[in-house]
Amino acid sequence: MQTSFTRRHALGLLTIVGTLSVTAPVHAVDSGAQARTFVHEFGNKLVAIVNNDISLSQKKQQIEPLLDQNVDVDAIGRYCIGRYWRVATPEQQTHYLQLFHQVLVNAITDKIGDYRGVSFTVGQSAPSGDDIAVSTVINRPGQPPANTEWVISNSTGSPKVVDVVGEGASLRLTQRQDYSSYIARNGGNVDALLHALTRQLANHH
Amino acid sequence: MRAETGSNSSSPRPSPLPCRPALRLAGAFMGLLALAGCATPPPKDPDALAEYKEANDRYEKLNRKAFGITMWANKYTLRPVAKAYIWAVPRPLRNSFGSLYQTMNEPVVFFNDVGAGKPRRAGDAFVRWCINMTVGLGGLIDVANYAGYKHHDNDAGLTLATWGVPSGPYLFLPALGPSSFRDGLGYGIDVGLSPWNYVPRGYGLLTFNWAYNIMGTINGMATNVDALDQVMKDSLDPYATIRSAYQQQRKAQAAAIKADHRATVPDWYSNR
């Protein structure tokens, strides 16, 4: 009895493992390739705008819709506020996401600045939790190449960027520590963060 | 503080303040001693506790003080000097100084590569040292880079990490920047591994050693001043941002060293 049970178990396990090992890599290859294509296309569009011979404000205008399409800003925002998302009232949540959206767009367009001659290469992809991390190397003239990883999520039904990892540091995780530390030091008050973000946006040029 | 050589400081990451052995160990260990009995007790709320553990910053109060003093001092001393240096010295020359500084730190990288049991990396560091110290005029020209021997950073904190030594709580050391118990100890080991600290007195080389360290510090700050300014401006809590970025980056660096299983035989040989 004991043996047959174990044998049946073992057989069942084998079947499961067998199916998994057949299906899993195929799935991984598919979504990996999809994520790489996505990064390639999104990157090309971004680089085309950055390298274009237009004014900075025009660049910003063109980049914003591109970010809306390809970056899951709401998901990043929820991640960045961490445990305080549940503490916040629905009004605070909506207000926060609005502010965060602008902060993120400003942060990205500030970085892009007056760059010209940017190029990038797409490298390998690897699973990162439920998402897929695609590695790229970004080259800017006169600067050492930057290894940057793009974390792509399919949770909204289409691939979208949910994190950028530069030299090992995840932007959303670093941001979350910044925000949560700020809220914690202001007595756990979410409004303190909203005020600070409003101030930040007002001071932005 | 690592040997901040500037070769891979291109990312948006906030870079640690570049400082050099000139400031020395004594400060680091004084800091370690002062820590005894200053720990913040962990919070009770489970979410807050998870956050506390993630930050790994038991000495936050003291660290924040050190951070405040360092940033204040930096604003009025090193930062203006670095800004003036950027203004006065053209970029190619600054790159050359950076490369010189990097080359002369190569022995430390080499010993640590050996310690981490990574022969290929050790070989790269060794060849870089030999080529750059001769053909590269002491490192002013990074010839080894053109020959395919790219620079990589390593330090004793990372070597200890590859041995499985846990980082211990986070530390912000006055003037030295973000660190941890393990990395602080590693810094002390690195000072011991650098041949320049064994130069006998009275050879004129001691002057060189001082010049080298001061130049390295200013050059390192010049490389990172914009990134640091941006963190100070954009973060709501720059202390927490730097802490997080530093911890993530150190983890990634140690993982990258561990995952480097390249063969010792160079590509040009095995590809023939």
TrEMBL record, chain A:
Residues 1-28 form the signal peptide. Gene3D superfamilies: Tgt2/MlaC. PROSITE patterns: TAT. It comes from the Bacteria. Coiled coil: none annotated. InterPro entries: MlaC/ttg2D, TAT_signal, Tgt2/MlaC_sf. Keywords: Signal. This is Toluene transporter.
